[in-house]
Specification:
single chain; alpha/beta; six-stranded mixed sheet; five-stranded parallel sheet; 37 helices; extended; Clp_R_N; coiled coil; nucleotide-binding; ATP binding
């Protein structure tokens, strides 16, 4: 074999043959080993298997014959570490080298080795087995077809043979086999593509649209029209293949290898007999720069000449952003394409698409999808999943809801599972009791065995019923799959002109399967109506609501009685936390009620409020209380921005993100990123009057349209947020009091904020200073907070009315509101409790009574420990 150059694939085939000989314990590598490698079904260099596929020969039969030849060889034990090529294999390789030279090839390729297997006298057994199943003439003809007249001039040359088969996916074949989903509502785009493809020059459409709107589906619809001959006469019989750019680039280690592969693909497309082949390149912007290295051209530059001459027809697809960022920058590449805009379908059109695809999803998951679920998927995805596009997001909802139902169907029902676990638990206990000899254990054993018998009696009918229902569900799924296959076969029969078979399928087999499917579905619905069913196969509107809530965090599920009563009690619970501000509480509560009832405006935040008032009257506390009610006390879910940090003009960029080219652009905006990650939240913009005036125009779009565009061009949805802005403007007139105090505070706000800003708010709420009674309640609230903290140590605290008055007298200041009271309780009450605990005077179970002495000073007395077990 010296002096003979091999391609990479031929070298790999010979190496695998030697490895096969070693693994079989054979001392030498023979032609039979090479033949087994070339016809293997697990080898990348199995040219024989590809020849069989092209000729329609059973490759498995050839493999079995060749495998028997190896089994006849004597094996060594232990196996040799190396197997050298025997004389017959060396002569075979020499013959392959001569054949390559006479054919004008620079290197020996796999096909030379394959054909040499037929022509070696020493190889008679291998040649005989091959000739019986695969003649040499047929093999040679298949090899010539695979080569398409190309010569072997480089080590990677074989990667260019059948390039379209290797690096392209035949959409026509998939459409004919019924493996493509039906395309609904895209007739205009398909018609426009056909018009462009029929042009004499620049006949290359590029589909431009947002991700998920159905660009690839339009091309699949074109493939289905080609299969159905629903296209112009001049295009009938045309091919349509998707170019796999990933496979094209993968494994191209050496410079020029990628270009060689792509040129081979383009050459095959250009040389395809009339009416030719259309090449579909999804994400076409990737060809700009694909495979480019130092001194090498990218894919786009290889495409341009052929596109300009009209030698190939290409359909591209990309998004608006990628088209603008990549394709438009290369004017020479762009002008060879004609853009076709694929817009997002409406909610009504999406419902039609979902109805058209329902059977495919039902057959795949083995479930029944209700029409209400499809309508809900379209409407709710459009309303709540704002960062994605229809119909993709609606299809994902339906798919996940169906998958969730399928998982439930494949799992044992909770009722059955709990009984089986109880039986298992009792059986384990019985096994342990059998080892005991005392009378109590024997008595308990009898009880346990009786319980096991009773549970098994309950379990048997449930198990039988579940098996019956599961079998019925499996039958439905099998029938759905069968029905889909029958429809595909009927369509294939119509296209091939076999009208007799098509009539048999359409008028006998398909109606029979449909009737049986209807019977099974009716039986299942009847069982469900009688509440006798242990498993539900239906995907309902409620399932879609659950998925939307899980994805977005927005509670869109229908209100149950517990949630209804909780929402109706929301104002009262807010008043417990926010004392003395009933008007503001009412305004905020009403906005939440409208939202959860489904009557809020879809294009605005749930509510937007400006809270005016002096410090310490409950403005921030109301925002926290609302957040706690909506999120069950999760303080982290509150989006809080201190607007004093945005007092400079340049700090506006921090809200929506730094512009491109500036530090922090990739991090996004503090406001937009927080809401994008948690779209259902309370946004608190604290002390808004301290922000720079340029901040307010940014908020106008949020308050009016419920949306804000960040520095990356992404639209962030604010329609599920409650926006609360707090301000100390108007504090002085409110502190002075009087009949016109509230009006004066509103006037102060109108002087500071522009009218277009105030006009977009749901309400401007004034917070009046707290009076003596409100502050007394606040003292008790502060003590309750302390009590909840010391309860961890099993210590209880109570305060007398005189003690509360003493706290209030020592801390009250109308200018500072509630905060001095809380500070006084912290500094005096909590500090004294801490001292008593550290000195050991305070023991678990103690009750601390806070009162005053004759001088009005606070006193702390301990009662006897309660009848409460101390913390362990």
């Amino acid at each position: 074999m010296n002096g003979i150059d091999f391609t990479d694939a031929a070298t790999e085939a010979l190496n695998q043959a030697i490895q096969l000989a070693v693994s079989q314990g054979h001392a030498s590598c023979e032609p039979a080993h090479l033949a087994n490698v070339l016809f293997s079904d697990q080898s990348d260099v199995a040219i024989g298997a590809r020849v069989c596929a092209k000729l329609g020969v059973d490759a498995d039969a050839v493999r079995q014959r060749l495998r028997r030849l190896l089994l006849k060889r004597p094996a060594q034990s232990p196996a040799p570490e190396q197997a050298a090529p025997d004389l017959a294999l060396r002569k075979l390789v020499e013959a392959a080298g001569k054949a390559a030279k006479s054919a004008g090839d620079a290197l020996v390729a796999q096909d030379h080795l394959l054909l040499a297997l037929y022509n070696s006298d020493k190889n008679s057994n291998v040649a005989k087995e091959l000739r019986e199943l695969l003649s040499e003439a047929d093999a040679r003809k298949a090899v010539e077809t695979m080569r398409s007249g190309r010569k072997v001039e480089s080590k990677s040359a074989e990667s260019t043979f059948e390039a379209l088969e290797k690096y392209g996916i035949d959409l026509i074949e998939r459409a004919a086999a019924g493996r493509l989903d039906p395309v609904i509502g895209r007739d205009d785009q398909i018609r426009r593509i056909l018009q462009i493809l029929m042009r004499r020059t620049k006949n290359n459409p590029v589909l431009v649209g947002e991700p998920g709107v159905g660009k690839t589906a339009v091309v699949e619809g074109l493939a289905q029209r080609i299969v159905a001959n629903d296209i112009p006469e001049g295009m009938r019989g045309i091919g349509l293949r998707t170019l796999d750019m990933g496979a094209l680039v993968a494994g191209a280690k050496y410079r020029g290898e990628f270009e060689e592969r792509l040129k081979a693909v383009l050459a095959e497309v250009a040389a395809a007999p009339a009416p030719g082949v259309i090449l579909f390149i999804d994400e076409i912007h990737l060809v700009l720069g694909a495979g480019k290295t130092d001194g090498a051209m990218d894919a786009a530059n290889l495409l341009k000449p052929m596109l300009a001459r009209g030698e190939i027809r290409v359909i591209g697809a990309t998004t608006h952003a990628e088209y603008r960022a990549h394709v438009e920058k290369d004017a020479a590449f762009e002008r060879r394409f004609q853009p076709v805009t694929v817009s997002e379908p409406s909610v009504e059109a999406t419902v039609s698409i979902l109805r058209g695809l329902r059977e495919r999803y039902e057959a795949h998951h083995g479930v029944v999808i209700e029409d209400a679920a499809l309508v809900a998927a379209a409407q709710l995805s459009a309303r709540y999943i704002t960062l994605r596009f229809l119909p993709d997001k609606a299809l994902d909802l339906v798919d996940e809801a169906a998958a969730t139902r399928r998982v439930q169907l494949d799992s044992r029902p909770e009722e059955l599972d709990s009984l089986e676990r109880r039986v298992l638990q009792l059986e384990i206990e019985a096994t342990a009791l059998k080892r005991e000899k005392d009378s109590n254990s024997r008595k308990r054993l009898v009880e346990v065995q009786g319980q096991v018998r009773n549970l098994r009696e309950q379990l048997a009918p449930l198990q039988e019923r579940w098996e019956h229902e599961r079998g019925r569900a499996d039958k439905v799924r099998e029938l759905q799959d069968k029905l889909e296959q029958l429809r595909i076969k009927a369509a294939q029969s119509r296209r091939s002109g076999d009208m007799s078979r098509a009539a048999d399928l359409e008028y006998y087999a398909i109606p029979e399967a449909e009737n049986r499917l209807r019977e099974l579905k009716a039986e299942h619905e009847k069982a469900q109506a009688n509440s006798a069913s242990m498993m539900s196969r239906s995907v309902t509107e409620a399932n879609i609501l659950d998925i939307v809530s899980r994805w977005t965090g927005v509670p869109v599920a229908k209100l149950n009685e517990g949630e209804r009563s909780r929402l109706l009690e929301l104002p009262n619970r807010l008043r417990e936390r926010v004392i003395g501000q009933d008007k503001a509480v009412e305004a905020v509560s009403n906005s939440i009620l409208r939202s959860r009832a489904g009557f809020a405006r879809a294009d605005q935040p749930t509510g937007s409020f400006l809270f005016l008032g002096p410090t310490g009257v409950g403005k921030t506390e109301l925002a926290k209380a609302l957040n706690a009610e909506l999120f069950n006390g999760d303080e982290k879910s509150l989006v809080r921005l201190d607007m004093s940090e945005y007092s400079e003009a340049h700090s506006v960029a921090r809200l929506v993100g730094a512009p491109p080219g500036y530090v922090g652009h990739e991090e996004g905006g503090q406001l937009t990123e927080a809401v994008r990650k948690r779209p259902y939240t309370v946004v608190l913009l604290d002390e808004i009057e301290k922000a720079h005036p340029r901040v307010l125009p940014v908020l106008l779009q949020v308050l009016d349209d419920g949306r804000l565009t960040d520095s990356k061009g992404r639209v962030v949805d604010f329609t599920n947020t409650v926006i609360i802005l707090t301000s100390n403007i108007g504090a002085q007139p409110l502190l002075r009091g009087g009949a016109k105090a509230e009006e004066e505070a509103q006037d102060a706000a109108r002087l500071h904020f522009p009218p277009e800003f105030l006009n977009r708010l749901s309400a401007v709420c004034t917070f009046a200073p707290l009076d003596h009674e409100h502050l007394r309640r606040l003292v008790h609230k502060s003590i309750r907070k302390v009590a909840s903290r010391v309860a961890e140590h099993n210590i209880h605290i109570e305060i007398s009315p005189r003690g509360a008055d003493a706290v209030l007298a020592a801390s009250f200041d109308a200018r500072y509101g509630a905060r001095p009271v809380e500070r006084y309780v912290e500094n005096n009450v909590v500090t004294e409790l801490s001292r008593l605990l550290l000195t050991g005077e305070l023991r678990p179970g103690s009750i601390i009574h806070v009162d005053t002495d004759s001088q009005g000073a606070l006193t702390f007395s301990m009662k006897a420990p309660m009848d409460v077990s101390p913390d362990v």
